[in-house]
Write a structure and sequence with these properties.
alpha+beta; Rossmann fold; Tumour Suppressor Smad4; 2 domains; 6-stranded antiparallel beta sheet; 20% helix
């Protein structure tokens, strides 16, 4: 990346006390290089840092040139959603605490090398497609979200199998009879989609995935469609049915009869600093315990 970085946002997983000494060290490391560290308020309190400027986590993408997140994939996804909401192009440098994540592929030991490369413009930035979702209720927009991984429609705990009508670009595709439906990006293919039996899709593939959850019939199978598609889904439900929609597992709400959901590719991708130590397939082999290559 070639943009000058003068302000770096710092956000840790909430309650991650193991990050405290790292945050204090990061603050000093950045200031020694003439870079201003900007903490989100929760992270500043977590680390006991009172002298640095702190702002809300939602404001970080608008105020910084780079955001460093410390935690796991969930922490990164939460920040990705905030970056999308801010309509920002700020990249994320994600550092995992604990086991290697599908997204947080930079280890703590690699933090300063990766950060130094990023500040110097040597780092490789990976772009990940986001999905834009809109819920239409009573003919008007009820809610809009942008997701990195997926939008998931599921039945309530006491509900029977649900039916979900699916159309692509205005053409009917199928009515899924299942416990639910996942609409995922390639990045999200290794999340809930993978657990539900969907395919792994490389993040560079321009695609969108439709994966039924525990389908009632064998004919309801996962399908990969072009990322430029306009997907429309409508739950076929009665007044007493319970059907929920969630976005990146971060937020959701119950659906009502006649609600319509649109899913398209978001106009702006997410930018993630890649690890210089491992490829996408290295991460897959480690996470999925595959054997090595030739």
């Amino acid at each position: 990346m070639s943009e000058a970085i003068t302000r770096v946002g710092l956000a840790a997983k909430r309650g991650l006390t193991a990050a405290n000494p790292v945050l204090v060290e990061l603050k000093s490391w950045l200031e020694q290089r003439g870079v201003t560290p900007v903490f989100d308020e929760d992270t500043a309190r977590l680390a006991g840092i009172r002298t640095a400027r702190s702002i809300s986590r939602e404001a970080l993408p608008r105020e910084c040139d780079l955001v460093v997140v410390l935690g796991g994939d969930g922490t990164l996804i939460g920040m990705a959603d905030r970056i999308a909401a801010a309509e920002s192009d700020v990249p994320i440098l994600a550092v995992n605490f604990g086991s290697l994540g599908f997204l947080t592929e930079i280890t703590l030991a690699e933090l300063y090398e990766a950060l130094d490369d990023t500040l110097a413009g040597r780092a490789v930035i990976d772009t990940r497609a986001l999905l834009s979702t809109k819920t239409i209720r009573d003919g008007a927009s009820f809610a809009e979200h942008i997701v990195l991984n997926d939008m998931v429609i599921t039945r309530g705990s006491l509900s029977r199998i649900i039916e979900i009508s699916v159309s692509v670009n205005g053409a009917p595709v199928t009515t899924v009879r299942a416990d639910g439906l996942i609409i995922a990006s390639p990045t999200g293919s290794t999340a809930y989609n993978l657990a539900a039996g969907g395919p792994i899709v490389h993040p560079a593939v321009d695609a969108m995935l439709l994966t039924p959850i525990a389908p009632h019939t064998l004919s309801n199978r996962p399908i990969v469609i072009p990322a430029a598609s306009d997907v429309q889904v409508r739950p076929v439900m009665g007044e007493n049915d319970e059907v929920f929609v969630t976005f990146d597992g971060q937020i959701g709400f119950p659906l009502r009869p006649n609600d319509l959901l649109h899913v398209t590719r978001a106009p702006r991708p997410l930018r993630i600093v890649k690890s210089a130590k491992r490829t996408y397939f290295d991460v897959l082999r480690q996470k999925l315990k595959w054997g090595g290559g030739p």
